[in-house]
Amino acid sequence: MATIKKIKEEILNKFEFFYKNYSLVWILAFFVSIRSILKFFSRLLYEWLGPYNWDTPIYWAVGRGLLNGLKPYTDLWETKPPGIFFLSALSLLLTGNVWFLNFFQVIVLIFTAIAPLLFLLFYKKEKRVKSFFPYFVAIVGGIIYALYSAERAGEVQIESFGTAFCVLYALLLAFYDSSEKKIPWFLIIGMAISMLFSIGLKEPFFLITVAIALIFCNSRKDYIMGFVLPLLLGGVLGIVALLVSGIFEPYIKEYLRYMLSSHLNRYGPIWERGFLFGLLWKDMNSFDMGLGTLTLSIFFSYLFVKLKEIKNRFIFQDVKYYLRNLLKNLLRISFFIVKAFLIAYLSMLAVGAAGDFYNHHYAFAIATYVALFIYILRGYINNISFVTKSGILLVLGIMIVCAVVSLPVISYNTRLADIRNHDLYARSEAMYVDKVLDKMNINRYFFIGPLGQQLYGYTKHSPYNPFFQIYDFFYPGNEYFKQMFISNIQKSDIIVFDNYYILDLTNWTQGYINSNFSDIPWPEVSNINRSYKKYTIYFRKK
Fold first, then answer.
1. How many domains does the chain contain in total?
2. Contact, 349 vs 275, CB < 8 A?
3. Exposure check for the chain: N or C terminus, fewer CB within 10 A?
4. Are 478 and 502 in the same domain?
5. Is the pLDDT of residue 126 over 80?
6. Could you list the residue range(s) of the whole structural domain that residue 433 is in?
């Protein structure tokens, strides 16, 4: 026992020296912090300047449709819940353009970055951390995950928005103290709103909120007050919003019917995708060679902190008590192991829910990583010894330094120039189509082509459904979209053509256009200037 005590004292002395006297560490931390902050500000500036991804014009188009009196799903189809459409409509209503979404993108990335730091600053003022190193770990670690979120789902991609709201849920849950007789009402409402917004932006975030609840909740009261009650309250608020906006029925009958049937199972059983943990590792390291190791270190640190808490709570008893309660203690540890597995499984399942594993889908799991990170910081403040928490923080600090050194070099100017080049043609063609439709007193047009940087994101007139096409809509047996396509092209007077992604409908469509349309403008609109010709525009024969 004396030897063990002596070893602990030596380790403690080394950590004291490390934190208080080792100036090289301070210098290294300073330069690492500066590098990460500069990288982050470069990304924020890029997002501020208005970039967007291939899905974003779809959100704009449906948002414009809402302002035009149309309903998502029945009038304008997209495989997303309505949250992003409401945000797009709000931006168009308040500002006349969609820049508010880029502003919001900057805000959610900043919040994701500073959430761990906010926890250290405001959790239990009487236990406020005074050492510099935990703040370094918190802010730089948060920035790394914010940069990862930005690269995978920035440019107004909704996973980064939902991630920020899930991180907010984790932050509020970290502040929740089940020992208090009265739980502050603002925590419950805040958790409800964060769950509503995250799930309302994309449903797989529900799985992430479950994973976060598993991280922080320990008792039945915790789960009821920290998960079930906010979920029910958020669900009620969501239903009210759907009813008030008039899209409750199409959301249930059209959107959920499609998403819960062919969409989820098109790549095989969904439950199998939750076991593909290697994909998470591969994607993190494809962004930053040090990120996978950092995240794995955070996960194992969480396991260590949690096991120390269980040990402190249940195992530090006299021998007789321990033997009498051995089974109970083993069950508690077994339950914790199951919880840890479920946290990883649910996070991977959220990533793989759609089955196609696009890069932005990996952003689903980021909120889990940040939640685990915040839990470790809470353990640092609350329950574990100085030697233990110093060791954990030292490991995480080293991993963070490696991750910052490995951050990729990204040419944002090149990206922005490419986006604006495509944007110029799409905007110009949108202006032309709007002028033609206004001149002829026509409300809508038909677009044939894939998603991407297309004019439907900019036209004031809304296109007919399906206003973009992908192969998944037209596979054999999927008659819903085929009938929608045929019905709406037959009622259209103007067709904007980019390319065919409609499989066996291609020949029929070509024949129908050749018989009923011409690429020569009507005499009434022949004098309207058309600066660029990105598309072939067909006019119905009179």
1. 2
2. no
3. N
4. yes
5. no
6. 414-540
